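Protocol step 4 of 5: obtain the predicted structure for the target chain.
Materials: sequence only (see below). No template structures provided, no constraints applied. The aim of this step is simply to have a reference model before the mutagenesis design in step 5. Sequence pasted as it appears in the construct record:
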Amino acid sequence: MRLLAPLWSRATYRGWVWVILGGALMMPFMMVGAVVHSFIDPAAGFSGILDPRVYLAVLPLVAAASLLLPDREVERTAARRLLAAEFASPADEDSWNSRWRTGAWFTLHAAVGGLLSGLTLAVIPFAAYLIFFGAGLTFGVIDEAPAFYSDSTVVWGLLTGPTYLVCLVAIVAASIRGMKALAPRLLGQGAADRLAASRAEAARLAARNRIARELHDSVGHALSVVAIQSAAAARVIDSDPGFAAQAMNAVSDTARGALAELDAVIGALREDRDDHRGPQRDLTDLEALAAESGVDVDLTVTGDREALGRLASRETYRIVQESLTNVLRHADEPRAAVTVAIGERDACVSVVSPAARRPRGRAGGRGLIGMAERAAVLGGTADTAWTPGRWTVTAAVPLASTEPKGRP
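Step 4 output (structure tokens):
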């Protein structure tokens, strides 16, 4: 039964659509080849479109065109949806390594699709012919098959017709499985992409470990002092109020020092080393940010800004700031529509800028990683998306209503 499983498998017929798309891609090249063939052999006319030599001759043309056509995302989407192939997109889609592998996939798609589409167009009508006349001969509806094709194949058409169809489905299913297995190698990440991703992950983990060490060294001792001094003050607050007051002053000084060290550590790790740091900006400063960013900003803020805690407000501001910096660096025009919608549970940020092409910056660059980390620390999310004509940054940050509100 496993041999017949492709007959009723949805994957087979979904993949068959992918095959037919490949045939559609191949058709323009075959027509060009047929025109050239008609000049070489005028007697053949336009029949060169069915000539195997024309098929082989146009494959280099298909390969050359694949390097120029903007087909990368289309081919990946088709492979994921129709072949159910699973793979991660390359980090740099415009690198030569990615382009030639995608070009090789496009060439194979057109070649396999053209061949199997032609086979489909030939075999299905022929099998229907065999079944029709085979049934007529078997049940005595007709006395003989048409004169242009009459032999035992037609006589046994009720058997040979379905056999041809089963063989066609088996060939298509085998081709689909082979292309599905090949998709990750040609459309997914190559060795260089995997190495770069591995290095980026190693750097990220190293940074996290460094943060943990720094925070442990700088804040751990301070918290121990706070715990001991506050416990001592609680025990003697009635019997020795002076000592209790002294202990609480020590707690206050130690806590302030720990906060300063914490700010210094995180600032250093984020490469934020401004020696003249004032109060950190938050959502109440969005209008000032829009005015001084160098970007033509269409700003819309809805909801209560004070509903966000101090940390959430500051980090949301930083997400918008980093997004506008990226607009200034990479957008086709220094223009952006910024929307901050503060609801009952979270603040949703959207920054939309013009982008005729997908940005060529390194995927996972520091700015995008920074935005994602800022949101993740607060239990939120941050993401980016490109559609023809625009680049969108979206983020959602929980209100964190248990924090103190307003500016520090």
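Step 4 remarks: Confidence is low (pLDDT under 50) at residues 271-277, 401-408. Residues 191-236 form the longest helix (46 residues).
Proceed to step 5.
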